[in-house]
Amino acid sequence: MRRQDADADADADTEYLELMPDSGDLGPTAGAIWSEQAEWQRRRTPEGCIICRTGAPLDVIAETSACWVSAPEIAPIAGYVCVTSKSHVNEPFELPPPEQSTFWRDAMRVACAVADLFNPVKMNYEIHGNTVPHLHLHLFPRHLDDPCVGGPIDPRRASLRRSADAIERPRSCIVDALDSSN
Question: The pTM is what?
């Protein structure tokens, strides 16, 4: 399904929300946590990592041997997904070379499936780890009419609520892409 097909169903599948104002307060999990060295170092360990402690990120829609793919109900833009490494590292270069290859291969298969479904003008790829120091890659299919045109995506200012179908369509495409590559 290409973007024009997805657009036809957009009103039924998403509830667009107003951009939330940037309060500057990122709460206890983000922002200046780096300046609290003991807390930052704790979070960098598997024992202090919320993903490792819970066994997986929230909202998982697909997985491979190397990663989980998640798609939350509240998202910054249509088509947003996140690819999270199953290994606890903060930086991609911290993965052993075979795991690096597998992580990037799987992430690019997910990105291709998202691009095939949503037909973006541009795919944005973002790795930060500033909030959760566990390797994860945000995938943002950008469109001429997305709410952040002319600027970067701010995931803290989610702009839409996705229906179950709006999550199922990319899930199905991603699972098919990952299955067909094995």
Answer: 0.84
